[in-house]
Amino acid sequence: MIRSTLKNKECKVHILLLTVLIVLSIFAINSYITKVYEGMHQELQSRNMAILGVILDKNPELEDELIPLYTKEITREEVQKGNELAQKYGLSLSSADITKPFINESLREILIGISFWGGGFLLIIFLLALRTFHSIYSQIRDISLGIEKIMNGDFQVISLTQEEGDLPLLRFQFNQMAERLRSTLDRLGEEKLLLKNLISDISHQLKTPLSSSLMFHDFLLDDPNLENRSDFLRKSKQQLDRIHWLIKELLNLSKLESGIIQFTMSNSSINYTIEEVVISLQQKIDEKHLTIQFENFKEPIYTTHDVKWLGEALKNILNNAIEYSNHHGEITIKLERKRNFLLIAIQDHGIGISKSDLPHVFERFYQARKNRPSVEGTGIGLALTKLIVNKHDGRIEVRSEGINKGTIFTITLPI
After folding, report:
1. What confidence tens digit (pLDDT) does each residue in 312-348 have?
2. Which of these, 176, 185, 344, 348, could form a disulfide with 411 (CB 3.0-4.6 Å)?
3. Is 401 helix (H, G, I), strand (E, B) or coil?
């Protein structure tokens, strides 16, 4: 406790100044008392010399007897004889009537000096304490003003110092708290915006399939014996499936953007992940009589990835390749291992992408409808794919020479 207190700058400065002040005061008082003592000694010597001069002036024959009394040690018998002689005149050593005025004057000088130095010492202590309290409370005021700013929405941090002690530590921790509060509020704001966008996206994307499904059901209700009843039911199911897929993709996109979903990374075979994706889309591949060509799949290539989510990203790309390929077409999936990274290329020979659309294909809800009138898209899948690849510290690119010249999606992942 004491050691931690001594780390404070104010405490160190205060103790140092007090130590210096006490040493200087002791030195000054000692010097002053020594000076007064020397003055008293000189005065007593002067008195003795005056008495000696008067006696020898009137009785020169006593010189040989009196001088030794000033040059040698005085015996107890000599002091007693002097005291007995002085008592005849009403004087004694205890009364000290002879030196009383002189001693009183000396004591008065000592008291005045001590009072002066004591008063100065107390004044300096007061000023030091005032300075210390001013330093402490000024820092507390800074923190108090910082709290008031935070309450008003201003998260500007207070200035820091490189000093040790509790108050600098408190300022640092206050700034840390302000930063965390600002980060939390920013994150809450982002989540609020994401939720708002999600609700807007869901309502926007569900509007068309819901309207179509309602229209099909209205036809069926108006005419129960409708000849194309099974066709209407099939189309209604397609719209419901589309609604289900939209909701799932939008929720996945929102969860990934907000950080709710945490990837489960493992060093797994990318060959296996791709093959599982192809198997899941085999029915659609067969419906269009497409051929899937695998290149460099003989040896398994291992890389750290989340099998489920990277599979979702690859599925979106392959699903696009299937939808935008012509019947009896071909899709090539190629793996290429470099020194520090892995390339996954998925190439189709379908309707391609115009140069004006290429920069926007990964934007949410962007659809190149002008060049793809026969295929109904949502603009969600590739945005989700890019987000998943980015969270794997990877990169995704798309190339196309133009309309009806096919498309190549390339994913780069670290090994």
Report:
1. 999 999 999 999 999 999 999 999 998 889 999 999 9
2. 344
3. coil
Q: At what angle do helices 381-391 and 307-323 cross, to 10 degrees?
A: 150
Angle between helices 270-280 and 307-323 (to 10 degrees): 50
Query: How far is residue 5 from each of residues 166, 167, 250, 251, measured CA to CA in Å?
Result: 8, 11, 57, 54
pLDDT in tens, 57-101: 778 777 777 777 666 777 777 777 777 776 776 666 555 444 556
Angle (CA) 28 32 34, round 5°: 115
Residues 6+ apart with CB under 8 A from 234: none
Helix pair 9-58, 100-151: axis angle to 10 deg: 170
**Residues found in the chain:** 415
Taken in order of first residue, the domains within the chain and their CATH numbers are: 2-151 (no CATH), 155-261 (1.10.287.130), 264-414 (3.30.565.10)
As given in the structure block, the two tokens for residue 368 are 């190149």
360 close to 383: Cβ distance less than 8 angstroms = no
Residue 18: C-alpha distances to residues 11, 36, 134, 136, 138 (Å): 10, 26, 17, 18, 22
- Transcribe 218-229 into DSSP letters: HHHHH-TT-TTH
Beta-carbon contacts of residue 202 (< 8 Å; ≥ 6 apart): 246, 247, 250
pTM: 0.51
CA-based max dimension of the chain: 168
